[in-house]
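Weekly puzzle thread! Below is a chain. First person to post its structure in token form gets bragging rights.
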Amino acid sequence: MESEWDQAPVEAISQVKIGNIDAEIVQGTFVVYPGETVARWNPDAPILRLRWIFDGVWFEMAKFGNVGSIEYLDRDALLKLAERMMNGSFTLDVKESEALAGFDVLEPTWLPSVLFFEGAAFEPKEWDSPKDTVKISYYFYSERLGPGLASNGIVITQQPTDSIEDCTMGTDCLVGAGANVERVQVGDMPGEYVIGVWSADNSGNWHWVNDPYLQRVRWQKDDMAFEILYMGPPEEVTKTDLIAIAESMR
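Winning reply:
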């Protein structure tokens, strides 16, 4: 496989496989050190990039930095993540995921009319954490991409609270210092609502971006932790909608 890597020497590129797909991976970046004028390749820089071609389309998955929430993403984990993405993650129905998880999986009894069920997934150990997690995906079609092309939707996550190793409500492990975490009510339970996502600059420094196209609500009830993550135009699914979805779960 051949590709034009942005500023990476050929000898730093390794040939790998994503399932049966040929791919290339490289770690490092060129660095101009203080007092020097020529950039030198630093293979230890915490920048890892994976590229491949599928059906004539270029894909790139990049990891910048080693912030705690993604430090598990080493070379092997990045390859597994890419393979899951290409194979599709939500291949189960809800009853199948429930049988694997060993607990009752709640489903929304109300959804905005734009959303359609995609599938469910059970993750007994996802990159070491979180564990025993069920995810249910719903999607909707984007007129911007043309008829029949889905690009937006929600993912509902449910897991036992005793399997959460690092993150609990009220901590900043999932959001950055610039995030505006709003306290909300999900029925009779306290919850949190936040807009935005982590983003890395070219130097691998992470910061929080208040992107309105990513919204989430999370809460805990009956020894279970829940999160609804919405990706898409904020006018299509609102904060009120997300809370209503959460309150409808049975």
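Puzzle host: Confirmed. Bonus trivia for everyone else. The longest helix spans residues 75-87.
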